[in-house]
Amino acid sequence: MSRDLLVAGGGIGGLAAALAAHRAGWQARVFEQTRSLIEVGAGLQLGPNATRILRQWGLLEEARAMGCEPQRMVARDAMTGRELSSMPLGLDFQVRYDAPYLTLHRADLHGLLLSAVRDQGVALHTGHRIRGLEQDGHGVRLHVEGAAAPHEGDALVAADGLWSVLRQDLLGDRAARPSDHVALRGMAPMAQLPTQWHAPEVTAWLAPGLHVVTYPVQAGHTLNIVCVTRRAVEGQYTGWDLPATRERVQRVLAGVWPGLRELPDAVPRWGSWVLHDRPPVAGPEQMARRRVALLGDAAHPMRPYLAQGAAMAIEDAFELGRVLSAVDGAVIDVSAALARYALNRWERCARVQRRSLRNAGIFHASGLKRLARDAALRAMGRRLMDVPWLYGP
Ligand SMILES: Cc1cc2nc3c(=O)[nH]c(=O)nc-3n(C[C@H](O)[C@H](O)[C@H](O)COP(=O)(O)OP(=O)(O)OC[C@H]3O[C@@H](n4cnc5c(N)ncnc54)[C@H](O)[C@@H]3O)c2cc1C
């Protein structure tokens, strides 16, 4: 029986899927539209639900070395700088969840997965823009722009991200919806920042209509900064991954605690992303159909307020590997395996999508809601910040 998996998209999700499939005894081929597989963007937090998987893949120690292990997650008032609450992320947390909480540069995580798939001999086809798919009882065909013939395989994973063309082919739904939030992201060399920024902590700075998240990456040499604000407040910006000026970030941070207002000057380049998402899929039949499965942002694009988009893609990939390893061509065929993948994944991803969205209202609260939030954080913040159903095995 042939076990040939086509993977559309060479982002974190696509590479993780190719790696998991290879470990499950499948031949994986990755098709990526960009010419060079170089990940841009900024930082990523990875909860223990994702780092446990990196350990199973033999990648955790390298990830640890290139990232940081924050010792606390802290909520602060962005207007005064005062701490509202914190949750330790040190040894107790690691023992409780059997893995560390890491912060990494996206490019480092992507590079780690890339070298793992290269080491396994996975075929990587860059400069291949996918146009669509077809499937029948015998296999699946992937159409690539400019190619005379389609690429054929036994199964296809659509990991082509937020703007997935394969999702539209498969489900016929609309493009991802733009939210009224925009994220401004930048990275500052730690050496240029006062020591208060050097602490190994993930901090969420909360203000009405605005939140800022800061954490160290690259073994503590760089501070990752994300400012999320409403587009209406900030100007009618549109677009994804566009350059942003320092003045624009300064405007967004006008009025917050002076320590935070130091940050824009320390960042050489700011970027801007209008955040998009989709409602969760309605059921497993929308996450996999016969020989094709959606994975990562193609399946469940979410707001970043729970810092779980890449982690969910990694979990998807792990589950994909598990079901693919069971395909024997007799009792379990490809369609049955992918249906099982969808069944095991869709609800959890939907829950994370919903929780992420809910966090937006909490982070940006104003007036009485803000006072109530702050009181709750002070009284039982540690319990509120922990998410056992998400982080736990
Ligand atoms: C501001 C912000 C902060 C975030 N913070 C976190 C965090 O802290 N923790 C976390 O876990 N997640 C975080 N995320 C989410 C995370 O970045 C994404 O969920 C994750 O990268 C999704 O990976 P993916 O592989 O599914 O999609 P992508 O990374 O988008 O990869 C898709 C790939 O497919 C390729 N592709 C697309 N279309 C085609 C085509 N037609 N043909 C061929 N190739 C194609 C693309 O070029 C790309 O390489 C954040 C996101 C944002 C916006």
CATH architecture of the largest domain: 3-Layer(bba) Sandwich
The CATH topology of the largest domain: FAD/NAD(P)-binding domain
Strand content: 25-35%
Give Rg in angstroms.
21 Å
Count of helices?
14
What profile does the largest beta sheet have? 8 strands, mixed
Query: What is the class of the largest domain in the CATH system?
Result: Alpha Beta
Summing up helix and strand content along with how strands pair, one would put the structural category as alpha/beta
What is the overall silhouette?
globular
Strand order of the largest sheet: 5-4-13-14-15-12-17-16
The average pLDDT value, as a whole number, equals 94
Low-confidence regions:
none
Distance between the termini: 33 Å
What oligomeric arrangement do these chains adopt?
A: single chain
- The tally of domains stands at 2
Number of strands: 19
Q: What compounds sit in this structure? A: flavin-adenine dinucleotide
